[in-house]
Amino acid sequence: MARAHNFCAGPAALPESVLARAQAELLDWRGLGCSVMEVSHRSAEFIGVIEAAETSLRRLLSISDDYAVLFLQGGASQQFSAVPFNLAASTDVADYVVSGQWSKKALSEGRRLVQAAAIASSEDVGFSSVPARDTWQLGDNARYCHYCPNETIGGLAFPWVPTVSVPLVADMSSVLLAGPLDVNQFDVIYAGAQKNIGPAGLTLLIVRRSLLSQVRADCPASLSWQVAAEHQSMANTPPTFAIYLAGLVFEWLEALGGLPAIEIINRRKADKLYELIDGSDFYSNPIDPCDRSIMNVPFTLVDPALDARFLAEAEQQNLLNLKGHRSVGGMRASLYNAVPEASVDALCAFMKTFEQQHG
Length: 359
Ligand SMILES: *Cc1c(COP(=O)(O)O)cnc(C)c1O
Known about the structure:
The chain is built from nine helices and 14 strands. By secondary structure, the chain is of the alpha/beta class. Helix 4 links the parallel strand 3 and strand 4. Helix 7 packs parallel to helix 9. The two termini are 33 Å apart. The site of pyridoxal-5'-phosphate has 12 residues, from helix 3.
């Protein structure tokens, strides 16, 4: 059976070789006569897995010992609440940059727990560009500044890392590991795994250790980064299978040449699709070309009446999950690390043919 060309925004494609390895090891992992899912998280074998995953991630991103790496649960959405609990009192101010649906959600969750202020927004232009840095109205006493470097739904990405005088918090759910990153420019990075890292159920958090002591006294233990760090992400049972699989994905990335190598492939994949879209009057993408995401590429057809047909014919070609998010409509192709370049080639070929037939 041929694997589908899977453009799902999340849970998204995983590398075929990683899945094959997990399959081969599933019933009898390391000669233990059971799967990795069926051993204690306190066993030496599993501790070896979580430590190897952390070491590999630290190598990929050159994460220094100033940062803790945490394997959490609850998705990126839970971090919308964990961020204020860990960094601010309820009376403190926190700054939020609103550049799309996800940063807007982070703001509305933040408002429940802290004096959250939208210090910049591009909603008035339909989130088609990132809010220019010189428009940000940073609070004098803000405890942190939160933003989303890659807006998964809108297909918008920051081409620069903001410099601010307060701790910088980034929701990198759909872009972590897409290319090299200087972790030292950030204070907190979090990401739900199911876009570019591994299966759903795991959330990665990279946090500057010096911030861990700021946690509120009333923060639930399950949301506290300090508690997680003190227990090596095992204050309670961690998502063991998801951590194992993420570890295999990190190994796969290292074998491929690390983040510089994957970034070259990712740029090439995205360039092919944007070039096709820009070269046609049939397809279009609304995002300012400087601020386009290389991970999530939304596009519309000139006549929305053709949308259903486009999706049905794509599916016949084994090109799956191209429907845009319900809030924006149209199409969206997510081109995460595990989406092979051949899948993008197949999509581009299909789009050209579809345009010839219906344009
Ligand atoms: C998918 C996504 C989320 C939500 O992730 P969950 O794990 O479903 O909570 C938040 N932020 C961004 C940028 C995302 O892409």
